[in-house]
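Page 37, continued from 36.
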């Protein structure tokens, strides 16, 4: 089964039949929200709202372990994560989409692994390629089929939040090789690998990162970019699910 992590609006996909919502108990506590099960042309899919429903959990307080655990319990073997990001790469202005292939983790203090208790046998996952190459390929193919222009690779810089970054921080991240910056990419990607679930990211740029435009970043501008860009995300997701 395919799991999709993102906002509540993702359940508005054309042709999606919502079947039920269900809460899951996990060894790591309560997930952000109930899981919503649905079907689109016979393809089963399950959604979880990363920030809760309604949207209220800040990035550093999300129970990422519980979210991934709940999806695993539901039978999910592939996860598509939709993340709002700031664009650093010249092709990632507001409302543009990227499918990153690498990630740098700048977060701290988050529960970031399932291998931190005496009751769990220690393991060290390989994280050379943090995103599933096969899932990325299918997402890129879906974007090509729908005519949605995307950045087909890039490095995601995962920051702590909930504040946005300073111009100096973005300058540093750019020197580090980051093409986009967001607050929810980690530890989500690593936890999916620990749970043995394939994982890929659809990143929607909602603003130029700090210092890369002549204006300050406002929530009104971010919400406008989400409205303008979410249609592209929906097109890619629908083409992926119908493939």
């Amino acid at each position: 089964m395919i799991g999709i992590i993102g906002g509540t609006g993702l359940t508005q996909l054309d042709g999606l039949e919502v079947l039920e919502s269900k809460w899951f108990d996990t060894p790591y506590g309560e997930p952000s929200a109930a899981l919503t099960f649905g079907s689109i042309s016979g393809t089963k899919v399950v959604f979880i709202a990363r920030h809760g429903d309604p949207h209220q959990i800040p990035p550093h307080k999300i129970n990422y372990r519980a979210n991934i655990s709940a999806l695993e319990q539901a039978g999910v073997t592939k996860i598509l994560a939709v993340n709002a990001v700031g664009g650093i790469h010249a092709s990632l202005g507001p409302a543009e989409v990227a499918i990153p292939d690498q990630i740098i983790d700048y977060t701290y203090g988050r529960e970031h692994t399932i291998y931190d208790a005496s009751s769990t046998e220690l393991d060290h996952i390989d994280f050379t390629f943090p995103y599933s190459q096969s899932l990325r390929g299918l997402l890129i193919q879906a974007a090509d089929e729908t005519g949605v222009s995307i950045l087909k690779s890039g490095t995601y810089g995962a920051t702590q939040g909930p504040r946005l970054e300073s111009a100096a921080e973005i300058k540093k991240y750019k020197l580090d090789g980051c093409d986009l910056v967001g607050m929810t990419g980690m530890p989500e990607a690593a936890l999916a690998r620990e749970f043995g679930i394939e994982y890929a990211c659809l990143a929607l740029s909602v603003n130029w990162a700090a210092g890369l435009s002549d204006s300050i970043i406002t929530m009104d501008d971010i919400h406008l970019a989400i409205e303008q860009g979410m249609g592209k995300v929906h097109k890619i997701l629908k083409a992926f699910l119908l493939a």
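The chain is about 25% helix and 25% strand. Flag for discussion at group meeting. The chain has one domain: 2-242.
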